Amino acid sequence: MQIDRRFADYALTGGFFLICQLGLIWWVGYWPTINPNAFEKLVPLDKSLVGPILTGFAGALAVIAVFVIGLILDLLASLFRYDEMRIFARHLDLNSNWMPPFI
């Protein structure tokens, strides 16, 4: 497998997982409320470089988080392989009456 496809797989898996997690947090009602005035105390707004630096840093952390979560999920997939094979074999047995004519 090519290395760029592996990273794309990690990114898609991690991004989907993060989006689902954020959707679940929003649906349950634990979405944090952010006070916009809190950032004025943290970052002086008169500096012209502070905004782009913080935006770039946050974007880099987001990209790293997406890839790391995808990598962790890919590594954890091997733990569930036997359960998945058992469930797949059970479904094949249950659907064996219509699958051979279909195939």
Structure overview:
With 103 residues, this protein is mainly α. It is built from five helices and no strands. It starts with a helix and ends with a helix. Helix 1 (3-28) packs across helix 3 (50-76). Helix content is 74%, strand content 0%. The chain is elongated and about 70 Å long. It has one domain.
Helix and strand element order? HHHHH
Distance between the termini: 29 Å
Structural class: mainly alpha
Q: Describe the biggest sheet?
A: none
Which bin fits the share of residues in helices? Answer: over 70%
Name its key features.
single chain; mainly alpha
Summarize the structure.
The chain is an all-alpha fold and 103 residues long.
List the helices and strands and how they pair.
Layout: H1 3-28, H2 38-42, H3 50-76, H4 81-94, H5 99-102
Helix pairs in contact: 1-3
